[in-house]
Amino acid sequence: MESDTLLLLLEIWEKLFQHPLKTMVLQFARAMVRGEALSEQLALDAMDVVAKYPGEYQALNTVYFSQRSPTQDIDAVYDEIQSVWAEED
């Protein structure tokens, strides 16, 4: 899909969906579509926020996959969050 189309879909989604993580997830989704890299620290901070919402795997994945080459730190946080959520299910 063209990036313009994806950005339009994100705009539509933004208007139709309400969730405390929405603004943050959209920041990462838009950056991915535009090919922009957000800092590792920003991603780690965002993952800490997402962790407070068990089961929000798509939000977690959006942040994780926004990193072109996830570092060991990002991998460790991602794995830990998924592990904790799995235990809560």
What does the model show?
With about 90 residues, this protein is an all-alpha fold. It has one domain. It has 5 helices and no strands. α3 runs parallel beside α5. It is globular. The mean pLDDT is about 95.
Q: Could you give a quick summary of the protein structure above?
A:
With 89 residues, the protein is mostly helical. It is built from five helices and no strands.
How do the helices and strands line up, and which of them pair or pack?
Elements: H1 3-16, H2 22-34, H3 40-50, H4 57-65, H5 72-88
Helix pairs in contact: 1-2, 2-4, 3-4, 3-5
What summary fits the major beta sheet? none
Radius of gyration using CA atoms only: 13 Å
First-last Cα distance: 34 Å
Query: Total number of β-strand segments?
Result: 0
Mean pLDDT comes to: 93
Q: Can you tell me the residue ranges where pLDDT is under 50 for at least 5 consecutive residues? A: none
Structural class: mainly alpha
Total number of domains = 1
Classify the beta-strand content into a percent band: under 5%
**Helix share of residues?**
over 70%
The total count of helices amounts to 5
Order of helices and strands: HHHHH
Gross morphology? globular
Quickly list its features.
89 residues; mainly alpha; 0% strand
